[in-house]
Design brief:
Length: 695
């Protein structure tokens, strides 16, 4: 696509070529083009139904269900709370899933059912609640570009997004009340699952729903669903051995159902023989040992392997990288059958219940050669993620400059044997799905002093953090990356890490912290030959100067970044875009128009699609400031058409808003109305409820 919307004077002849032989010219014909703008239709809104599917064989929770049903009587137009507490494995999640599956409950919360398990997102005692809110907002179809950076802003947007239709929010594995309060919807019900009675939530008015272990009578009823002929004393003993925990009872029950020739007495005897299970401790650990001992060799080996993996979830490619062989599928089927592993999400991801995972890790640690085995498995996992994240980064961000070399092709031999993603959108989703495991791997690699892997992973994670803005994880990971690069003596990597960390602080408005990181990077630049590192730092410094209201200093910094990117076409376009913004802010509009016109032409000539609408919008602003709104209209119309064609919703929003303003200035009522109509339709389609940010 050719663009000839450069900074020509208002008296010249201007023709904006949008595509093929479609030419935009003349101030009064733009409305037809604005009206014809199309963009990829949004996916049909999905009402989330995220709670786990309840199992059959649910018994003896009449009292708890009665309490939960009573919560439905809470006044409409508010957010009620319920606190469900009990031991791990006692069936809290199953109880809530069973209750929420009732049509009456689904009708009460037409906005859907949202579910998040904080155990999957926890490191130590910390959870990135801002990241959790990002997950919830995306589940409600809020456009990624409209999710704000800070926890407070995200919490407010979540309340706004849930204010019209009541929703059910279920938060599992909560340890403290502050983890919950930002997640309360505007209207609906928040159900909190915890192993502790969280007194602050009860003081807030949460309904108390304690879930005790099954008593002997209820447990016997559950056993009789698997083996109707079971004797009372044998069934009661099994309940005692399993500490009344349905999770353990189900694992034994699946085994019993799969062996119809065996009696319950046989199974109970096997569980107690040669163990401490009969000593009255009632913690269920010996039962888990016996259940695992009854697996086939391949299934036992997979169970041990899963106990060695960092993080809380896994996929088949990860298991293969960790050392699972051809027996993986059959062994996984065994573990799924007895509910020691459950499938989560639509993309082949699995997790162990946290009680099971704790047991698997303890069991693995008791094996001969456990430490050597752990390090071998972890090395395979780290190598897998370093290679896979690098591939994702290159697919998402193309030929941006990187310190690390290009990874092997997806089909090549190496740590990544499976094709994990094929498009940039799939790559972003993969990184996001794997985020918590990636962070666990980073920390594990740091603990092993594999510093080279740490900074490489951090460099690749820019592709995720720049897109999804998981600021807390961004900051935590890059602190590790900085230390790792320093320990490796990689000054270039340390500069890269500090610059990327500075951009996280910049996004949060923490400008002093951002300046501190760049100041620490500055002395290292003197030791480095590659000017692009200096250019990256100058770019970040320029953005900070713009934010501080000093565009003249920003201009000089962006000029330095532009020189440093000589030979890097994309880098030149990006720095020209920033320089144009700074020149406009400094009132140097003719210079801005010249710089932006060259950048727009370069972006068009090199197929730099991501920058075409950006440079066009800024160029139109410069032309407007030069007193030529008619020329600016034609330029921004081209930017709007381009943004619509490529699904750049935020840029299309900005272009349409600017077009409407310019139409008023040139007295083109038709264009103004067309622009406003298209803008309203876009915001309705994309749920762009927040005003757009700066270009």
């Amino acid at each position: 696509m050719e663009s000839r919307s450069a900074a020509e004077g208002s008296g010249g002849t201007v023709s904006n070529t949008v595509s093929g032989d479609a030419v935009i010219s003349g101030p009064l014909v733009q409305a037809g083009y604005i009206g014809s703008i199309t963009y990829p239709p949004p996916p049909p809104p999905v009402i989330p139904r995220q709670l786990p599917v309840p199992h059959n064989g649910f018994v003896n929770r009449v009292d708890e269900l009665t309490i939960l049903k009573g919560v439905l009587a809470a006044p409409a137009g508010c957010c009620a709370q319920a606190l469900v507490t009990g031991l791990g494995g006692v069936g809290k999640t199953e109880l809530v899933a069973h209750w929420a599956n009732d049509p009456e409950v689904q009708a009460r919360y037409p906005g859907g059912q949202l579910y998040v398990d904080l155990e999957d997102l926890r490191y130590g005692d910390a959870v990135d609640i801002g990241g959790v809110l990002g997950i919830l907002l995306r589940s409600l179809n809020v456009d990624e570009s409209r999710i704000p950076p800070t926890l407070g802003e995200r919490s407010a947007l979540f309340r706004s997004a849930t204010a019209r239709r009541p929703v059910l929010v279920v938060v599992d594995n909560v340890r403290a009340a502050p983890e919950v309060r930002p997640l309360l919807p505007g209207v609906g019900l928040a159900v909190v699952l915890s192993r502790s009675r969280l007194a602050p939530l009860l003081l807030d008015g949460a309904v108390d729903v304690p879930v005790p272990p099954l008593d002997s009578r209820a447990g016997v009823r559950l056993v009789r669903r698997w083996r109707s002929t079971a004797a009372d004393d044998a069934a009661a003993e099994l309940v005692s051995l399993c500490a009344g925990l349905p999770l353990l009872m189900r694992a034994v029950g699946e085994r019993l159902v799969g062996q119809p020739h065996r009696t319950l007495e046989d199974v109970v005897r096997e569980l107690t023989d040669g163990t401490d299970a009969g000593n009255g401790s009632g913690d269920g650990g010996a039962v888990m040992d016996a259940v695992v001992a009854g697996f086939s060799g391949p299934t036992r080996r997979l169970y041990d392997l899963l106990g060695l993996l960092p993080g809380t979830t896994f996929t088949a490619p990860l298991a293969h990288a960790a050392g699972a062989g051809e027996e993986f599928d059959a062994a996984l089927t065994d573990l799924l059958a007895v509910h020691l592993v459950v499938a989560i999400g639509p993309r082949g991801r699995y997790r162990m219940h946290d009680v099971v995972r704790t047991h698997a890790r303890a069991l693995s640690s008791r094996r001969e050669g456990a430490e050597e085995r752990r390090r071998t498995v972890l090395r395979g996992v780290v190598d897998f993620y370093v290679a896979a994240a690098a591939r994702a980064d290159r697919l998402i961000l193309g030929n941006r400059w990187r310190l690390q070399e290009s990874p092997a092709d997806p089909g090549a031999s190496g740590p990544v044997r499976d094709r994990l993603f094929t498009t940039s959108a799939e790559a972003v989703d993969w990184l996001d799905d794997e985020r918590d495991t990636l962070l666990a791997v980073l920390r594990a690699a740091d603990g092993e002093r594999w510093y080279d892997a740490v900074w490489r992973l951090c460099e690749s994670l820019w592709a995720l953090f720049e897109s999804r803005k998981h600021y807390a994880d961004w900051i935590d990971s890059h602190r590790l990356g900085i230390e790792a690069a320093a320990r490796e003596g990689r000054f270039d990597a340390e500069v890269r890490m500090r610059n990327q960390l500075a951009r996280a602080h910049y996004g949060l408005g923490e400008y002093d912290d951002a300046r501190d990181q760049l100041a620490r990077a500055e002395p290292l630049l003197e030791t480095l030959a590659d000017p692009r590192l200096s250019g990256a730092v100058r770019e970040s410094q320029g953005l900070l100067q713009l934010a501080a209201g000093d565009p003249d200093t920003a201009v000089e910094l962006f000029r330095g970044a532009l020189v440093a990117n000589e030979g890097d076409t994309h880098g030149i376009v990006v720095q020209s875009y920033h320089l144009g913004q700074a020149l406009i802010a400094a009132g140097r509009n003719q210079e801005a128009a010249d710089v932006l016109a060259r950048a727009a032409a370069t972006a068009a000539g090199t197929g730099d699609d991501g920058m075409r609408s950006k440079t066009g919008i800024q160029l139109a602003r410069a032309q407007r400031a030069l007193g030529d709104p008619a020329l600016a209209v034609r330029t921004v119309t081209e930017a709007a058409v381009w943004a619509g064609r490529h699904g750049q919703y935020t840029k299309l929003d900005q272009a349409l808003e600017l077009t409407a303003e310019l139409a008023r200035e040139i007295g083109d009522d038709r264009l103004g109305q067309e622009s406003l109509d298209k803008l309203r339709a876009l915001r309705a389609d994309m749920d762009l409820s927040r005003r757009p940010g700066p270009a």
